[in-house]
Each structure stands twice: as structure tokens, then as C-alpha cells.
Amino acid sequence: MSQPPHPPSGGQHMPNGRPRPGAPHSPSSQPRYIDYGTPRAFDTSVRPASGLTAARYAPAQIQRPDQQQPPSAWSTQTRRVQEVSQEAAKPPAVSIGVWIALVALGVGVLLVLGYFFLEFVLTASSSPVWWPVTAFLASISLLVIAGIMLLADRWDPQPIPLLLIAVFWGAAISAGLSYVLNTLNSTLVYLLTGSPEAASWAGAVISAPLVEETTKGLGLLLLMVLARRYFNGPLDGLIYGALIGGGFAFTENIIYYTRGLEDMGAGGVLFLFILRGVLNIFGHAIYTSLTGIIVGFVARKWGTVMGFLVFLPALVPGMVIHSLWNLLAGMGGGIVLLLLMYGGKALVSLLWLITIGLLIWDESRLTRVRLGDYANQGWLTHEEVDMLATWKGRREGKRWAQQLGAKPVMKRFIRESADLASIRQRLLADGANPKVVGIERNLLHRLTANRQELLSHVR
């Protein structure tokens, strides 16, 4: 965390940087200091001198602007920002209900269309065109997962190419490697035991969780290497992990649906779609996102090196849940066990969705704390911190900017400010890496330019 501003020689400020009671304020005085708090999850300013968590570079300090920043167009043109931190936002119950109803209706329509589409293909063709059919069914689950991740990614959006890389890694690289390695492992068990049952059990309960979670997790490490700038915390890890898992499930579901289509016909594959594509839709997304959450949290708090070192332990939760699910699925205990399995998976899915909401809130809290560091050094005003780092403030800011014809500028201001907050957290975790310091410098330049452009629209 950055140090509070040093008191000026005139003695008008307290040692912690706050103005003394009754001290006069002038444009040339120190920026007003506000203690935004330092939540323990973000407190990475005190680094050990040695050990695994020691920062490679010296601590990163925030430099003061070379010249006094222009006044905030936002804080001088509206008072709505003062209400941001005082009014609790009311959840849009009507909108949420409408969306739930639309999603339920959409799923129902897709189920009916999927069934009649399968019946049409099977009865109208002498040789069933299985690939478009099964790919269509498998894509429904992937689109649902991708839609949820795009909603979760609204606070600090990730680049679309990286999200696509995550999906394609799961669907192609991870699925392909897992198929080869699982086949080899099952064959090895069969050669050692001579039992097809033992080979099938070991393949599902032991090999599949170990191999698949490892190959999917390697995609997370690849994204850290390619785009550490955008892999800044547990929410980012969850988003990338869920998309990798969703891509993997897409390919796996095509295989299962194809076998079901050949063995059981349209009705059987529809039942299989309900089991895999609806009731267990988040399976692989949950497994891999658990790894992403752990890696992202450790990287944010203790730096990139520790994020890599924690990779193997981070695989364990996903492997355990995956193995337990496959074990229960292979027991064949009838309707009671089936209800227990899918009831348990529904509970896990609910907890996972709640976790997404908590991580979004945590991400906004981090943005407010880190932008507060810059406000305390004079880069922006504290009113702007409230506007940039709360959902209500962002809505009000965009609404105000739209009246001036500057909504694109405001949206860019919000997006780049969130990026700046993430970069600041990375500098605290990894130290003053010259490359990252350069990124911070560029974002500060962009911040100043965005503020000036908004001010020009007001004028």
C-alpha cells in the first residue's frame, strides 16, 4: 500500500497526512487524505526480506503528479456522487424476476426444439448427421456458462481474445491431451489386472480427475504467462477457469451425446442432455475455477512466482470433487443415489454462484482501495473514486456523461481506472517491476487525458 502524503513544512497537516482541524485549504496544499482502509486480503505493502513470498523488486511507491491536476468535472457538475456511499442500492427485483423467467422459457424452448430437431434428422436421413446435432446440444451448455462469465466480468472486463483462448484451450488442447492420457492409463490398468471393470473404474475415478484437472489447469498457467496484466485476482482466475472447463465439457458432451444418439435414439440423448447439460451443467467449470480462484488469490497477494508455485496444491479441490462425482456416478445405486448426487451438485452450484457474487464485490472493494491511493496523492478526487469504484457511481457517471455527449469517454475512464487499480495491486505484490511501472505510468497518463476530455465537454 502506498504511504500517506508527507506533511508540508508549514505544519498544516497531521503526521498521518490528514489536514489539521481548522487548517486553510488552498489549491497548492497537499491533496486531501482519506483513509480507505487496508483490508488484510489486499495488504501486501510489508514484504519479507527473504523467502518464497519476498518481492523480487523494491516496493513500488506512487509518485506525485508533475503538475496540479485539473478540477474534477464530475464533482463540480453534479451532487449525485455524494449519495453513492450513503444510499444502499435496491436490488432490481422485477428485472431479476423477468430475466429468470426468460432464461427458464428459453431453456424450455431449446429442449423442445432440440428434441424435434433430433427426431427430424433421424427420420429424414438414411445416415444420421450426428456431428451438427450433438455439437448443437453441447453448445447450449457452453453458451450458458459463457454468458454467466461475461456478466461476472463486467466490473473489469478481460480482453475477448483471452476469453476465447480459455475456451479453445479447454475444448481442444485439454480435451485432446486428456483423451490420449486417459486411454493410456486405462490400458495400463487393464494390462496389469486383466479386468475391464478395474480399468474402467480406475480411468473414471483416478485417471480422469488427475489428468483432466491438470491439463485444464495448465491453461491457467499459460494465461498467466501470456497476460499477467489481466490475471490479477481470484475473480479473473474463476472466469478463465470456468471458460476452460466449459470448453472441455463442450467437447466431452459431444462425445457422450454421440454415443447416446447411436445407442438410445433421440429420447435417450435428450435425457442425457438433461443430466449432463442441465443438471450438471457447471461440473467442469466448477472444478477448474476452484484452481483459478486459488492461483488468482495467491498471485494477487504474494506475487506471480507464488502463483505458479501454488499450482499443484490448487488442483486438489477440483480433483477431489471430480473424483467423488465420478465415483458416485459409477456406483449405480438407483433413483435414491441419483437424487442425492444431483441434489448435492445443485448445492455446490449454488455455492459457486454465490462465490461469484462475493468475488465481484471483493473486486470492487479492491478498486476503491487502490484508486484511493492515487486520490491521496492528487491524481484524482475522492468524489471520482466513489464514482469509479461503485456500481451506483458508475451508473450515475455514465448517465451524466451521456447528457454531455461524452458517454464513450466516461466508459473508457471507468475501464482504464479499474485496470490502473489492478496494476497498482500487482506492483504491491511483485514490487516495482520496471515493465509494470511503465504500464502504470501510461495508465496515469490516460487517466489525466480522460479527465481533461471530460472537462472539455463540460466547457
Question: In summary, what is this structure?
Answer:
The chain is an all-alpha fold. Helix content is 71%, strand content 0%. The protein has helices at 73-77, 93-124, 130-152, 160-193, 196-226, 234-279, 283-302, 304-309, 311-329, 334-376, 382-388, 391-403, 407-430, 434-458.
Q: Describe it for me?
A:
The structure is a single chain. This protein is mostly helical and 459 residues long. The protein is 71% helix and 0% strand. It contains 14 helices and no strands. The protein has helices at residues 73-77, 93-124, 130-152, 160-193, 196-226, 234-279, 283-302, 304-309, 311-329, 334-376, 382-388, 391-403, 407-430, 434-458.
Helical content band: over 70%
Calculate Rg over CA atoms: 26 Å
The succession of helices and strands, N to C, reads HHHHHHHHHHHHHH
Give the helix/strand class.
mainly alpha
Which segments are poorly predicted (pLDDT under 50) over 5 or more consecutive residues? 1-28, 77-94, 120-127
Number of helices: 14
Q: If you average the pLDDT, what whole number results?
A: 81
The outline comes out as: elongated
Q: How far is the first residue's CA from the last residue's CA? A: 36 Å
Number of strands: 0
Main sheet record: none
Strand content: under 5%
Topology:
Elements: H1 73-77, H2 93-124, H3 130-152, H4 160-193, H5 196-226, H6 234-279, H7 283-302, H8 304-309, H9 311-329, H10 334-376, H11 382-388, H12 391-403, H13 407-430, H14 434-458
Name its key features.
459 residues; mainly alpha; 71% helix
